Amino acid sequence: MLAGAALLTAALVLPAPPAAASELAKRGEYVYRASGCGNCHTDREAGGAELAGGAALETPFGVFYAPNITPDREHGIGAWSDEDFLRAMREGVSPQGSHYYPAFPYTSYTRLTDEDLRALKAYLFTVSPAARPDRPHELPWYARLRPLLYFWKWLYFEPGPYRPDPQQSPAWNRGAYLATAAAHCGECHTPRDRFGGFDRERRFAGTKDGPEGAVVPNITPDRKTGIGRWSERDIAYYLETGMTPDGDFAGDVMADVIDNGLSHLAKDDLRAIAHYLKSLPAIEHAVSKRKKDKPGKRDEFEY
């Protein structure tokens, strides 16, 4: 009996066969592309290693530096268990129990399925480990009080995976899942209040206070200030190529989102995102550009 129990335990903890592990990582790479992890966690301007962190994210609440999420055991997430990873993505809590700042968009990633989260972790663990220590954030004193994040979460955070709407089509639900969970479009395209929470009345309506001081456009179907004149085909083509219906191209951050992520997705998934965006309530909300205040600083998050 004991021998049988030991064999059963061994079977549960043995690693997946190579083929299965490879398939899981392959699926994870797709989740990785859809989620845009590399855009924030790779310091491309400084020639940093893939996912080794260090890239700056300027916000109205200070400058956040993305952490190292390579499999390095000391500086990255190499020592994390699956449960650690799911807790970070689902609840915004580190393995040590501290709360993450919402600059890490766990507020959207919480909606990913467990299966996609495990696949994403499997892919991240195929990346070369980089022994690069994390850089401390540059924040005002009040924002450095991490215990206050508990109250922020109480006010603004709704953890839990995406629940399909049975009243909607499979394509709509797939688009909603990709746009709100993986691609986390609302994190940049929704205005925030003075405490950094979403302005829920103007979801996806754009903001002049986006990352790095960028102007982020309104992507609701409003014909005057949003993308109401775009067809679903226009939107899907834009997400694949970066080209707008009038022949212009995506710039700066959005160009990275497309080049490194969305352009790698299946056409059906791009059409699903377009279908979902066109179903949103049209919100009239004009956002304008800011003038550059530093040479070379990004000033726009263009279409």
UniProtKB/TrEMBL annotation:
Q: Where is the signal peptide?
A: 1-21
Q: Which Gene3D superfamilies match?
A: Cytochrome c-like domain (1.10.760.10)
This protein is called Cytochrome C
Record-annotated Cytochrome c domain positions:
23-128, 170-281
Q: Which compartments does it reside in?
A: Cell membrane
The organism's place on the tree of life at top rank: Bacteria
Please give one Gene Ontology molecular function term for this protein: electron transfer activity
Q: Which SUPFAM superfamilies match?
A: Cytochrome c
- The residue ranges crossing the membrane are none
Name a Pfam family for this protein.
Cytochrom_C
Q: Predominant location of this chain?
A: membrane
* InterPro entries, alphabetized: Cyt_c-like_dom, Cyt_c-like_dom_sf, Cytochrome_c-type_DH, Membr-bd_ADH_cyt_c
